[in-house]
Amino acid sequence: MVSKRVDINKLRDSEKKYGKNYKRFTNLDVPKYKFPQSQMDSRSVYQIIHDELNLDGNPDLNLATFVTTWMEPEADQLIMENLHKNFIDHFEYPQVNKIEERIVNIMANLFNVPDGNDFIGTSTIGSSEAIMLGLLAHKWNWRQMRKEKGLPADNPNIVFGADTHVSWDKFARYFDVEPRVIPIEEGRFTINAESVMKQVDENTIAVGVVLGTTFTGEFDPVQEINDLLVKLKKEKGLDIPIHVDAASAGFITPFYEPEFKWDFRLEQVQSINTSGHKFGLVYPGLGWLIFRNQKLLPEELKFYVNYLGDEMPTYTLNFSEGSSMIIAQYFNIMHLGMEGYTKIVNRMMDNASYLSSRLEASGEFKVMNDAKHIPVVTFSFSKKEKFTLFDLSYRIRERGWIVPAYSLPPHADDVTIMRVVVRENFTRDMVDIFVEDILNAKKALVTGSIKTSQRSSREGHPVS
Ligand SMILES: *Cc1c(COP(=O)(O)O)cnc(C)c1O
User: Quick check: 282 and 332 in contact, CB under 8 A?
Assistant: First the structure.
């Protein structure tokens, strides 16, 4: 974001200098502050922007992100073919809408919605929008319930852990709900069920549970929290819904640990979000929100758009959005099936544990997390060094690798870690190359540690 207004716009200077006929893109200036007066030919513009973007990191070497950076050529082709379709125009593009509905069905079933349940769901721009929409519905339901009982409804709160993504704090602030944030446990990096129970009361609109934290990839104890909330419902009549943030795990656990109960098999789990653009293996931005039951989505929150002479309900924050990623998700589901996703997920988990064991075996690093649910590896130095993980993160950038170093949330904020998300295209061969590179980078820092220790360490934070 830039707010400074400096006018260095000496556009078309080169034209004066070299004359109108000197047509070479390397002599053209780019607009940075003012709308340019004249036109520039499209080939030059393409080349200039293309070259400038070479300064970005290489997405395939970006081990910081959970987000997909590679899809198959046939998926790319479908994406290009549908880039110009606005998803919200259901009247004009009814078939994209049908495909979205099919995926909602597929996701609800993947998340084990009980037989015969009239679930409801929607695509979103990502998990963030899905979280906002899910929690907003719970806020409305809570208020409605309070009003019906003649009780005050002006003090809603939401309970979640400090291990959640920033979108949870955002929801609380934007939608004016008191956040009751549970500190993470030292040495565990997730919340525990008992501390959730200490925070909930009659004004709690929902409890947030994260499956695959962005910090260490670990799971909040969803079954224990569910069981204690069921007990509370039976004993005190307080029926508090759980919203599961399965941004990452939503496309991992159903394939990797199908027996693990985290979804609609648990009584209090009323809504779930996941990111299609993470382990759904689609480019950004696509998310999914599924409610266990249609009645969880209040009628007042639905808006109707014209659909072949009919009215279609929609539940979104955005209005216009692309169709391509929904279609790309359908491509993956149809192409890979349970079999394909299962193989890919198993491979990613294997590669993650291979990376863990190689880092440990080097003696230079200590693996911090228990990466048993999603393919994320976090680590730090095995002993104190004269330089920091931030220095190392900076150093391996020389080879193109992007790996973030960051501090954990309060109560563990003295712990600094590095995180690698093992995505599908981070192959075993790439793991080997990476391990070699990071060991070399560390060696170089040891050699030059007198110099580097005088440099101030940079701030770091997890990137998704
Ligand atoms: C990535 C992530 C989010 C945000 O999801 P987007 O799809 O990027 O909007 C929320 N929660 C968790 C746990 C995440 O990993």
Answer: yes
